[in-house]
Amino acid sequence: MHRLYEEACSRLQKLCPRPTPLHLREQGVLLANLREIDEQLAASLASVDQDTIASALTGLEEFFASRVSDRCHVCGRKTEGMAELWSYMIEGSQGLAVFEDLVPLCDRCLEALRPEALSPRRLGKTAKWLAKVNGTDKGEVEELLDRVLEEWRAASRVSEWSVDLSRLGELGVDHEPLERLLGGAAAGRYSLAEGTVSAINYALDTIRVMVLDDVDALCSRRVDASILAARAQRRGLSPDWTALHTHIDLLLDWGLCIRGPEEAAWALEAAWVVHLPRGQRAQLVPRLIEALGRGETWAIRVETPRQPSDPAPVAVYTPSFVDVDLAARGAEELAAILHSMGAAPRQLRLYPRDPVSGRLARYHLYSVAIL
């Protein structure tokens, strides 16, 4: 396999930028993202027992603690934070991310390792600092960074990744459960980014094309709150007419009808939200991930916080609140899974996305009792 950034890092040995390929960054493939994860959820995702994952996560926490220092590993200045050092290898459509070390760094060294530091606006400043700490010429560093960027762009087209955490094993940490957990994110089964465990439907692009008909229906006024409320009642849902009317007005005022297709489709998403005990959350999420992997059209994404909480929220996104039949089917499928688990929430509520904040709104559009 071809090792990325090898030429640059052979010449910038004290501090060398190795930007994370885009897929791995989007999937949250970092050990730091495992430090706060709920043990029951982690065990379920990694398909190991809870004692095994708990022991591995404790070992990881002890490893992080052992690396703490008040002085930068590179230049000796005051430490600002910790940096994970990874190497990356690619061959064809396959990639391998190998964990190497965890080091304390100052603010300047941390900044030099961030992908944003290689942007045209910051490249000169980054090259100047790297030249200083590595004892080399700034012009030479700029040439090396240009090659780093070229390799990063090529690697960011790779989406089939695996991880190697054997270095942790050499340091006394039970790395195999962690490798299974982080490997699931690297492989694209789920993401650990932005404080959540989330997964998307493999058929998302196809489903979103279908949603554009709903956008047109709202913009042409062929559909309004009264029509949606009537459709919802026929499908066994309890609509909130006031919330529907308010939300449609919000979307139109936001500019739904002049947005690009992808942004407009995104704005119609809504989520059935259920709050479950931690153990039941750990059972539900992998089953929903499996459904997404099959390309089921009733759900496009599942999302839950990484952290332990009791009860824990799980949001199951439906493509469009305007497609009442599909939204109702999503509620039925979710209720069936919950029943099979022995979970018994009394009600499901569908919360729309606030197009301004991007988060789920506080009000719900439809609800359904679970009998």
Give the structural class: alpha+beta
Lateral strand order in the biggest sheet? 5-8-9-7-10-11-6
Average of pLDDT: 96
- The tally of helices reads 15
Order of helices and strands: EHHHHEEHHHEHHEHHEHHEHEEHEE
Q: Can you describe what's shown?
A:
This protein folds into two domains: 2-190, no CATH class; 198-369, RNA Cap, Translation Initiation Factor Eif4e. The model has no long low-confidence stretch (mean pLDDT 96). The chain has helices at 6-11, 22-26, 39-46, 50-66, 107-113, 123-134, 138-155, 166-170, 175-186, 204-219, 225-234, 241-254, 261-267, 278-293, 324-341; strands at 2-3, 81-91, 94-105, 160-164, 196-200, 238-239, 270-276, 301-305, 312-318, 347-352, 366-369. Helix 3 runs parallel beside helix 14 and helix 11 (225-234) packs across helix 12 (241-254). The strands form two sheets. The protein has a seven-stranded antiparallel β-sheet. A four-stranded mixed β-sheet has the order 1-2-3-4. The chain starts with a strand and ends with a strand. The protein is α+β, with helices and mostly antiparallel strands. The chain is 46% helix and 18% strand. A hairpin with a 6-residue loop joins strand 8 and strand 9. It contains 15 helices and eleven strands.
